[in-house]
């Protein structure tokens, strides 16, 4: 039977279904009856036995509704075992962590990889793969992708998502899901400000066309505060912690994070200063955002925005389901009161933006049978299985074929946000991105707290990054 980690899951009510229990247990018992003998060769040279092969996988939410990251691997074992024709039977020992922290999960994997005790398959953010390539914790997948391109839905993965899986021309992950990071807004508060229903409903298109730009959002937030519709500092809530969302405002102002030709990290000083200025103005000058936003507890953020106290706020698409699951907000109540749009362009007529953070399955160097581990991933990458994950956790399609999947088609939120991938950017896949990320976010906090000006923050941040990553940074 598959192993499951239920940390933080009980409140959400997610349990292994009786059907899944019987399927996975039955497969394991049937497989155990087979004798083990030498069969086909894997790419690593290890013989694939003609009996039971136990594959292990670690996955994480940390949002509770993302449990299909684990369950789809369990289901994929049945699909793979049918293709193996009975000679080899795969049994999956998979875990799912929710309610925890990414940092703890990544450290656990790093320690296991060093000790040669890591699982066969690891789920992580696409940018987490780069630090694992140097010490060979994960393996390149290009030969396996080529060999098994017709397996599962690999050939239907949205091409830009493959780009996010690459490092120096080699592919190290298979996309598991993706999302967008919208600017959410309270329809009920805009209505109190005198906006008509047509104007409120038309806001996403106005942003898409560049008719409603960042200065318009700031002006609207200031008006809401001046009229007492929201309290001081509650016109806009940005992300409260380090993460991909932060860089939407760097991209909004013409930023580049990685050089296509060399793979090196990039800082565009003018764009970085404008990015810092957006936040300095919001907190210190226009006062549409509270100074307490930096490091605010995520639960306080969620409860405040769900209580209708903030006009504009940033969060991922997956929060749509999390707000329902964790905060018990009825779906129709969300639709009635909350809208979502791209991050408005810096100026009228410009192009709006969002950021996506694809998660990926990777095969570790500790995998004894990497070919079987990869084939399990491929068979978990189907419209049917991915759409179950998408609608349960509010993550966007990774396969072009999901648009025709009946499960995906019935979810109006996913259909309404899928277009955002046409405007999306990614954070870099670089081994030293963690340093870059730490420095830029720390100086963002210093700007918001009034400790430095945006110009001072840029100069100090660039010097610090240069001293720590050397010639792996390009400054423009």
Description:
The strands form six sheets. The protein has a five-stranded mixed sheet with strand order 4-3-5-15-8, sandwiched between helices. A four-stranded mixed sheet has the order 10-12-9-13. Strand 3 (52-60), helix 2 (68-84) and strand 4 form a beta-alpha-beta unit. The protein is globular. The protein has two domains: 10-178 and 357-425, 3-Layer(aba) Sandwich (D-Maltodextrin-Binding Protein, domain 2), CATH 3.40.190; 183-355 and 432-475, D-Maltodextrin-Binding Protein, domain 2, CATH 3.40.190. It has 21 helices and 17 strands. Residues 1-45 have low confidence and may be disordered. The N and C termini lie far apart (54 Å). Helix 1 (18-32) packs across helix 2 (68-84), helix 2 (68-84) packs across helix 16 (370-380) and helix 2 (68-84) packs antiparallel against helix 17. It has helices at residues 18-32, 68-84, 102-114, 129-133, 142-147, 159-164, 187-192, 197-201, 203-208, 214-226, 248-252, 269-285, 298-306, 319-327, 331-337, 370-380, 383-393, 406-409, 412-417, 433-448, 454-469, and strands at 38-41, 47-49, 52-60, 89-97, 121-125, 166-167, 170-171, 174-177, 183-186, 236-237, 265-267, 312-314, 338-341, 354-355, 359-363, 424-425, 473-475. With 476 residues, the protein is α/β, with parallel strands linked by helices. The chain is 43% helix and 14% strand.
SSE diagram, text form:
Elements: H1 18-32, E1 38-41, E2 47-49, E3 52-60, H2 68-84, E4 89-97, H3 102-114, E5 121-125, H4 129-133, H5 142-147, H6 159-164, E6 166-167, E7 170-171, E8 174-177, E9 183-186, H7 187-192, H8 197-201, H9 203-208, H10 214-226, E10 236-237, H11 248-252, E11 265-267, H12 269-285, H13 298-306, E12 312-314, H14 319-327, H15 331-337, E13 338-341, E14 354-355, E15 359-363, H16 370-380, H17 383-393, H18 406-409, H19 412-417, E16 424-425, H20 433-448, H21 454-469, E17 473-475
Parallel strand pairs: 3-4, 3-5, 10-12, 11-17, 14-16
Antiparallel strand pairs: 1-2, 5-15, 6-7, 8-15, 9-12, 9-13
Helix pairs in contact: 1-2, 2-16, 2-17, 12-21, 20-21
């Amino acid at each position: 039977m598959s192993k499951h980690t239920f940390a933080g899951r009980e409140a959400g009510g997610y349990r292994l279904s009786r059907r899944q229990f019987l399927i996975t247990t039955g497969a394991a018992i049937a497989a155990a009856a087979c004798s083990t003998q030498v069969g086909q060769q894997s790419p690593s040279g290890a013989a694939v036995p003609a009996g039971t092969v136990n594959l292990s996988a670690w996955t994480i939410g940390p949002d509770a509704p993302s449990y299909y990251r684990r369950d789809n691997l369990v289901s994929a074992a049945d699909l793979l075992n049918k293709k193996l024709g009975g000679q080899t039977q795969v049994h999956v020992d998979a875990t799912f962590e929710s309610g925890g922290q990414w940092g703890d999960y990544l450290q656990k994997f790093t320690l296991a990889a060093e000790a040669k005790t890591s699982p066969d398959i690891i789920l992580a953010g696409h940018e987490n793969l780069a630090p694992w390539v140097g010490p060979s914790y994960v393996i390149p997948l290009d030969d396996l992708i080529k060999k098994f391109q017709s397996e599962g839905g690999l050939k239907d993965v949205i091409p830009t998502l493959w780009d996010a899986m690459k490092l120096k021309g080699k592919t190290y992950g298979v996309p598991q899901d993706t999302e967008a990071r919208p600017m959410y807004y309270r329809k009920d508060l805009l209505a109190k400000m005198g906006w008509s229903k047509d104007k409120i409903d038309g806001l996403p298109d106005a942003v898409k066309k560049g008719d409603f730009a960042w200065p318009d959002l700031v002006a609207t937030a200031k008006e809401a505060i001046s009229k007492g519709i929201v309290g001081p500092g509650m016109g806009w809530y940005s992300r409260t912690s380090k993460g991909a969302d932060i860089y939407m405002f760097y991209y909004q102002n013409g930023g580049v994070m990685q050089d296509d030709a060399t793979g090196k990290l990039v800082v565009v000083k003018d764009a970085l200063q404008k990015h810092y200025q957006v936040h300095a103005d919001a907190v210190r000058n226009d006062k549409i955002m509270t100074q307490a936003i930096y490091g605010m507890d995520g639960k306080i953020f969620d409860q405040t925005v769900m209580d209708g106290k903030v006009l504009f706020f940033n969060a991922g698409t997956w929060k749509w389901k999390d707000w329902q699951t964790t905060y018990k907000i009825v779906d129709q109540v969300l639709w009635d009161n909350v809208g979502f749009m791209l991050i408005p362009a810096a100026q009228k007529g410009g192009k709006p933006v969002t950021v996506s953070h694809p998660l990926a399955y990777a095969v570790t160097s500790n995998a004894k049978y990497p070919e079987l581990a990869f084939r399990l991933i491929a068979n978990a990458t189907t419209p049917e299985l991915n759409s179950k994950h998408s609608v349960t956790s509010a993550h966007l399609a990774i396969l072009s074929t999901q648009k025709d999947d009946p499960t995906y088609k019935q979810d109006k939120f996913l259909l309404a946000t899928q277009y955002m991938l046409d405007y999306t950017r990614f954070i870099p896949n670089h081994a030293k991105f963690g340093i870059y990320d730490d420095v830029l976010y720390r100086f963002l906090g210093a700007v918001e707290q009034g400790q430095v000006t945006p110009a001072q923050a840029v100069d100090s941040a660039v010097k610090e990054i240069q001293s720590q990553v050397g010639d792996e940074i390009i400054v423009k």
